[in-house]
């Protein structure tokens, strides 16, 4: 997280990456933090939370904090973390998962996400349906649910 958002989590930033991740990891329900490890070293993370930058009333949950350490990028880890977040949100009963991003639009759109709107700061708000209102979950553990 420090590497991806140095302005927030870096030495001069106001954020505390360890405290934020610990808070997300210890709660029940939302938020849900997911961490990818290489042995015991964290190499990626994503959270499913209740709110995000650019949210409008009635929107949520949100995929937030998707980050992959530089040496591990380009190998599908970001997509795997997004799939895990989608699965967690579907398991929690969400019909749609939202995300605000400046840098992961291509990754998420390749996974079936669609742009809803652009924000004045350059970020885009995306959404992905997770369940068909008539048939139930579209996703479960990142794979299509058998009919």
UniProtKB/TrEMBL annotation:
SUPFAM superfamilies: Acyl-CoA N-acyltransferases (Nat). InterPro entries: Acyl_CoA_acyltransferase (IPR016181), GNAT_dom (IPR000182). Transmembrane segments: none annotated. Pfam families: Acetyltransf_1 (PF00583). GO terms for molecular function: acyltransferase activity, transferring groups other than amino-acyl groups. Residues 1-131 form the N-acetyltransferase domain. This is N-acetylglutamate synthase.
